Amino acid sequence: MSLGNYYAKILLFGEYGIILDSMALTVPFTHFHGELSFGAGYSKFKYTDYDFALTSNALILDYVTHLEKLTKSGIPDLDLNIGKLKDDLEKGLYFESTIPQGYGLGSSGALVAAIYDGYSARKIPAGKKMKSEDILRLKAVFSAMEGFFHGKSSGIDPLNAYIKYPLFFRSAKQVETVEIPQKKFGSDTAIFLVNSNEPGKTEPMVNLFLKNTEKKTFNEMIRDRFIPLNNRCIECLIQADMNGFFSDLEELSLFQRKHFEEMIPPSVVPVWENGLHGGDYYLKLCGSGGGGYFLGFTQNYSVTKKYLTGESIEFITVYKGN
User: Fold this and answer.
1) What would the pLDDT profile of 186-221 be if each residue is shown by its tens digit?
2) DSSP string spanning 156-209?
3) CATH homologous superfamily for 182-320?
4) Would you say the C-alpha torsion 215, 207, 295, 271 has a positive or negative sign?
5) Which of 24, 109, 214, 295 could form a disulfide with 286 if both were Cys (CB 3.0 to 4.6 A apart)?
């Protein structure tokens, strides 16, 4: 069984701010992906990591209990064939995935999208020209489905994996697919990921942020400084205003370094500060932080790559201008 690949996601902008109705921008990241499949013993030509397949199968089996409760609760647009899913799990169904868990790239989101696509009796079709209301309906379904993994989910990760196009969230009530004009970025411009070499957990980081927002001073900083910076970065990126983008990005990176300190592991701090001091690149959170990957942008890719390589820092180039 395979309905195709479900890609990892990169939340370029919108982490934490989207909780307070900021803009957000996500892109599918095809380097990492997953698909539903059947394990060894059930497929004649299947060769894979047997222990991984068993673990994945057991996880989905636990997940079924959550899905059963959801279907009985009468959530609109959620009509899963739980019986068929259980039958397939008995036949060795698992999620073959290269998406690292706890790295902010939507590993659980890809699984949720795959199960919805494979077992929903009334799927909302995905496409490049989807209406905003259909995307929001899907988002609500995915939010409920992914809650099993994070306690509370925005639904954005599975939405990204299912639709497979960049998504621009103008607000909580308006979302659309969007094209990012990459050809106007410049030949030495790049987007990259930096590996912190330790996994992170979404729920405690989100809970910490929400607790901080209960403080008047922090809440005002987020609304008056962080969200406007976040929104301007998105608008400049979509409009290919690279001078404005990197100017706002520098401020955003500095703000996160100062006020989101708990979300930045010690291993990432020197790399982050080197970018701020030299100006060759800037780092920001990639999702909730606390571990996993961190996101970088540069207009001096050759210099940045030389530095990261020299420091033996593992990084992945997501996009490089031509």
Assistant:
1) 889 999 999 999 998 888 998 999 999 999 999 999
2) HHHHHHHH-S-EEEEETTEEEE----GGGS-TT-EEEEEE-SS---HHHHHHHH
3) GHMP kinase, C-terminal domain (3.30.70.890)
4) positive
5) 295
